[in-house]
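BUG-417 | component: ligand-complex export | severity: low

The export step for EPU jobs runs without errors, but we want the raw record kept on the ticket for reference. Input record follows.
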Amino acid sequence: MGQFYIKGGIPLEGELRVQGAKNAVLPILAATILNQGESVIHNVPDLKDVKTMIKILESIGCSIKKEENTLIVNSSAIHTNEIPEYLVREMRSSIILLGAILAKHKQAKFSYPGGCDIGHRPIDLHLKSFRELGAEVMESHGYIYCKSNNLKGTHIQLDYPSVGATENIMLAASLTEGITIIRNAAKEPEIQELQNFLNKMGCKIKGAGSNTIIIEGVKKLNNVEFTIMSDRIVAGTFAVAAAITGGQIVLKDCYIEHISSVISKLIEAGCNVYSIEDKIVINSSKKIKAVETIRTLPYPGFPTDMQAQMMALMTVAKGTSIFTETIFENRYKHVSQLIRMGANINIDGRIAVVKGVNKLFGAKVTATDLRGGAALVLAGLSAEGETIVDNIYHVDRGYENFEENLQSLGASIIRKE
Ligand code: EPU
C-alpha cells in the first residue's frame, strides 16, 4: 500500500508549479464523450483518479493517447453505455459520466456508487434532476437504469448546490433540446472550468460561477483543445505546508482568488501571504496563532477539501480553534491519527475543538482518505522525529509527485513501497 517516511522540522523553501486540477479534469474527461470526436486536454495531472477515469472511458470504447501531461481522447467509437462495476467502485465520482452518457446515448446502466471514505454520499440530487429533464430513472438491486428518449430543457432548482449534480446537469443538458436553467447551482471554479470546456466544444452555457446557470441545448459538438487550470486544493495544501514548517515558498501558476478563504485564514494565523501576477508567496516566519473558527462551506466559503490540512496546522498553533464540518458527515478520520502524534483534539459530531500544543511528535499513522492523508504528511513535516504515513495510495488519488515536490522545497520525505 506504500508508506511515506518523513523527518520533520525542516522549514520549506523554494518555488513550485502547481499541478492541474483533479476536480476540473474529471468532469471534463466525462464531457469528452459528448463530441464523438477528438478532445486534446493539456495540463492533466498524473493521478490515480485520472487513471481510473481513463480506464472507464476506454472500457466504453474511447481511445486515449497520453503524451506527458496531455491526453488525446477520441470518443467516436463508443460501443456501450454500461460502465464496469469494479471501476465505478474504484472512483465514486464516476457518477459524473451518467449525464454525458445519457445525453449522448439515450440510456445508461450504472452500479450505485454507494458511500466512500468520507461518508455516505447520496446521488438523489443527480437522479432527481435527470427525472426533471425527462429521463426515466429506475433504481433496482444496486443498479441505476436511465432512459432518455425525450429529454427537454427545463428549470431545475437544486435543494443544495452540489458540485457533482450541477456538473451532471450541465453535461446532460448540453445536447438536450431547449433551455435548461439550474438555480442554486454550485459556484466552484471547477464548474466554470467545465463551462469553458463545453463552450469551446460548441455548447451554449452561461452563468457558471454564479448560482444560476443557463444551458441552451445544441445538436452537435466539435473537436476541442483545452488546458486545465491549476488545482486550488493542491495550492492550499502546499501553502499550509509552508506555514506549518515555518517556511517561505512561492507557488507558481495559480489563482489567489480561488483560495482566498484559505489565504485569509493563513493571514489570521500570522502568515504573510500575497500574490504577484500568477504567483502566491507564503511566508510563515512567526509562531502560528489559532484561528478561532473554521466552518466548511460551499465555494466561496472555506473548502471541506482543506479542512484536514488546516487542522494539522492548528494542532501546533497558539490557542484554541473550532472546526465545523458542514459538507461531509465523516471527514474527521484524520483526527485519531493526529492525536497519535500528540495533538489535542476533541470531536463532538460535526465540531472539532483543537487546542494547540507546542509541537507534534513523529509516529506511525495511517491515511484514511485523500485530504486526511495529506494532512498527516503536513503534520509529519512539522513533527519532531520520524513519522511514517501508511496507506498513501489515498494521497496518490489527488497529489501528483507529492514527495518529489516536497523534496524540491527541502523536505525530508521518501516513499517506500
Ligand atoms: N449530496 C447529496 N445528494 C446528492 C449530491 C450531494 O446529499 O445528490 C451531498 C453530499 O453527500 C455531500 C454534499 O452534498 O454531503 C456535497 O456534495 P457535492 O455533490 O457538492 O460533492 P461532490 O461532487 O460529490 C466534489 C469534489 C469533492 C469535494 C466536494 C465539495 C469532485 C470529483 N469531488 O464532490 O472533492 O469535497 O465536491 O466541494 O469534484 C476531494 O477532492 O478530496 C473531494 C472529496
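Assignee comment: Attached the raw record above. The mean pLDDT is 95.
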